[in-house]
Specification:
Number of domains: 3
Order of helices and strands: HHHHEEHEEHEEHEEHEEH
Strand order of the largest sheet: 3-1-2-9
Largest sheet: 4 strands, antiparallel
Low-confidence stretches: none
CATH architecture of the largest domain: 2-Layer Sandwich
Number of strands: 10
Mean pLDDT: 87
CATH class of the largest domain: Alpha Beta
CATH superfamily of the largest domain: YebC, transcriptional regulation domain
Radius of gyration: 18 Å
CATH topology of the largest domain: Alpha-Beta Plaits
Strand content: 15-25%
Distance between the termini: 31 Å
Length: 249
């Protein structure tokens, strides 16, 4: 099985840099809060909250911090009201990008996004210009040491759609609604999980087959992700393993 971009795996590996910059906790807490506000504070009844809760716990966010975020989302504690916005744009080499933000100031965030794109060789796009080629999927990353047959046996009936080997990991793809079931099935089978989240997968890919091209695109991604309001950046590029190994943005 194949066909999806490696961007989810690249993002997983880049996550260590987010932790080093101290930004990951704040973004996860904000996602938990918004999920609770939109679907209620019970993770068993709110699949989005359950996914965000598990993601936060996997990143070692303290339990009491998560619980306070849920209470702010449900209104039990006072909190800031965040607006969800998705911006569309282009990085160099025609790479399409979607930028999901949670903001309490639309004008500030919009200006920051445009500036980050322009300064790094990208540009903002009109709504709908690139979003048509993206589809939301659940993605689970597990170690490549996991036995393929065992993974298939555990996850197929739970909703596994795609299984791809990528370097030192397996990438499993599901429908967004099947992500919790696939994660649970893997856990019950004793298969370790490195990450599990929903993402946007593109139907087209731009191959970045030189270090210079890869650096120019990753520079845009990093500039956007440095913004505290930016929750996720999705892109339709692929980088060969040998190029990725040499790239330092």
């Amino acid at each position: 099985m194949s066909g999806h971009s490696k961007w989810a795996t690249i993002k997983h590996k880049k996550g260590a840099a987010d932790k080093a910059r101290g930004k990951l906790f704040a973004k996860l807490i904000r996602q938990v809060e918004v999920a609770a506000r939109e679907g209620g504070g019970d993770p068993d009844m709110n699949p989005t909250l359950r996914t965000m809760y598990q993601k936060a716990r996997s990143a070692s966010v303290p339990l009491d911090t998560i619980e306070k975020a849920i209470k702010r989302g449900t209104g039990d504690l006072e909190g800031v009201i965040y607006e969800q916005i998705t911006y569309e744009g282009y990085a160099p080499h025609g790479v399409a990008i979607l930028i999901d933000v949670l903001t309490d100031n639309r004008n500030r965030t919009g200006s920051d996004i445009r500036t980050a794109l322009k300064k790094n060789g990208g540009s903002i796009a009109e709504p709908g210009a690139v979003s048509w080629q993206f589809e939301r999927k659940g993605v689970v990353i597990i170690p490549a040491t996991a036995d393929e047959d065992s993974v298939m046996l555990a996850a197929l009936d739970a909703g596994l759609e795609d299984l791809v080997a990528e370097g030192d990991t397996w990438r499993l793809t599901t429908a967004p609604t099947d992500l919790p079931a696939v994660r649970t099935a893997l856990e019950e089978a004793g298969i370790p999980i490195e990450s599990a989240d929903t993402t946007m997968v593109s139907s087209t890919e731009v191959m970045l087959d030189t270090a210079e091209a890869a650096k120019s695109v990753l520079r845009v991604i990093d500039a956007l992700e440095d913004n505290d309001d930016v929750q996720d950046v999705y892109a339709n590029f692929d980088i060969p393993d040998e190029i990725m190994a040499t790239v330092e943005v």
